[in-house]
Amino acid sequence: MPPATPEPTRPGAALELLVHGVGGTTPERMLDDPRTVRVTGDATAAIYRRTVDQHAEREPERFTDGRPVPEAYCWCNLTSGNGSRALWLLLLPFMVVNLAHWMRPPAGRRPGPGEGADTGSGPGAGPRSGSESRSRSGSVRLYGVLVRLVALSLTVLLTAAACEVALDLTAWQCAGSARCAEERSWLGFMAADQGGWWSQPGRRLALAAVVPAALVGLLWYLSNRTWSAYEAQRPPRGDMDGDGTPDRELRPALGRPGFWYGRRLVARLRAAHTAAGVLTVAAAVGGAAARYDRHAGGTVREAVGWTLEAALALGAVVVIWVVCRRGRSEKRLDNRLDRAVVSCLPGASIALLVAAVLYAAWSRPGWRSTGTLPGDATFSVITLAQGVLVLALAAVALRMHRRAPHARTVLYGLGGPAVAMLACALGGVMSGGVAQRVADWLDGPATPGTGDDPIGPPVLLSWQASVIPVLLLLLLVPAAVLVVRTALTARRLAPVVEAEYEGEQPDVVRTRRIAGTRARAALTDTAPVMAGIVSGATLLLGAGALVGAWVSGTVPGKAFAGGPPFVESAAEAAQALGSWLIGFGFILFVTWGRRAYKDASARRTIGILWDVGTFWPRAAHPFAPPCYAERAVPDLAWRMSSWTGRTGGRLVISGHSQGSVLAAAAVWQLPAGTRRRVALLTYGSPLERLYGRWFPAYFGPGPLGALHREVHCWRNLWRRTDPIGGPVNLPAEGGKPEVDHRALRDPVVYGRTHQHPLPEPILGHGDYQADPVFAKERTVLLDRLPPALPLPAPRTGLSSDESQGSAGRSSG
Fold it and tell me: pTM for the full model?
């Protein structure tokens, strides 16, 4: 977007654009003033100024001391609104598998000094042969296809769990059992012994299909609504530089025009996943009737059943083809929509569901519901497919990592497969938790599937519940190791802390507290190891549960009956405890999520992982919570482009924690002409410590080095007591100084002094602006920027920003 040409009259002002981190805050706290005014934006995300600074561009004499005009960008409502947002936490497996898409290793060799980042699309770092380029591009595409298939399996798993609860446990088993139906009067009209119109199994299944179909419809509605609000936000630049000329420089991935514009892909995936969910419901309803007709005979009904199942199989093939066919388009803004897919695929699947419902409702007087629906086969196939896909994903990731190895990349490039495995485990816990709790409620006091007239979920879900206690016991070992290691590290750091505060009188309690804070902050760096252990153990135990269910064909408590008493008792205890834990875990998860959006302290606790997860666009799963960065990054980039273009002034964008990631992403999106007038100040930043290690293709050494070269000046502040932020490890290059400041002291002083008569707190991740170094480094950055161009002459009318500010609401 070409900036407006400023009119030369008076020296221009400087602007500091503040971006807060996770957990949210208020503009009053960010600007340290109770009277603020909204300059531009809406109730969801907006930019605020102090009321006295509302028309700062017209009053440059107030800023002759070099102070910048502060303004705050508040984006917390993009992720943490009212309590109903807790419902998004039910879609956590979808969010986690979407993370796996972005965790792939870089596609090529590690860029050297002065080279661009090779991320697998477009020009890479240095020359390479055509076959090598095709191989790397093929690896990137294959990685994306595998992650999208894992995501599709999670949609099928969630729908299958809803079908298990509504169709199998309720309509098939409970309504078909005289004891269960008698105890629940609301099932009386469907009870098999009542002989009513709804008493036939097929009609009960057809009626119960409303529940999973409504769930799929709700997911489609939420995805479509958020797609219109988030994916449709256009970035400020297309293929044009700031002066109106084509921008042909090599761009890292986050700087490409279409990176924050996933409109086409999300619409395509939404249609495919909606169709997959609807087809799953249709298969559950129509498949049971078709199996009965094949055993009972009847030429017409049997032929209709075969035709319906063939149509469902064809629909499944089309869905898989749509998911695999197209990935993200980032090199340009892709405004097209695959309307044939978006409109026809869900419609065709709904038509098949209606046909399946009508076919199941066909009168079959001799049909009786006994045992369970064939859920074991369904869940076993899903589990096996997920395991195979995760292993294939691991093989591709290892191959890519070997081409561009880096010591800081987590788990040797296996971070994505590990997280994909955790997403599958979360999906299994949530689906199994719902099924186990409903079965426990319907079956009375007995453990699901073990009573005299058992009503229980598929055998596989009981086996998966049984391995949860084993998994928790295994995790006690690394947890104990971490506790001991942290204590030893704190003891080792004690003399280091006292040496840093040379000349102070040692205080054992004070030293221990500072050293302990540093040691606990270092636990963040052990997260990859814990994730790898949990993921590997989950894969092995899940495989054992699958084999156990296939071989035994019954729940663990019965599978070991007749064996050694100790083994039988242990199996029964594991099944009972696991059934309770998986149901309790699901309920705890929902209540915890609800509390997180009502209690600020709880929101801060989980806000880190949540904001990391929803930072990334929906590239793998369209039902994941929406990406707030697709609104926030264009907001920031538009503001920087418009303000510098209109005023010709200097601008420093100042980002804390997650705000530093948004700031860096916005700077990447700026035209080159605008980037020359922008400085970047980050503090408490996870750019390298978390994002660089977990997302090396997008924030690894190559992309961050490219950002260092492109932005005019950049400074990063960090503390050793910070559990989130850290150095970005970018050395001096091309005449530019090192990005990282030396570690800030925390606390600022060790003991009591005349300037600090009371003990100073250990700040950790917060209050970086309270350190005197902050203002000093901000001034240095502004001094290094090119001199501000002259401002337009004062006039009677208001500027565009001032007009918006005067229309905003004062919050003070």
Answer: 0.86
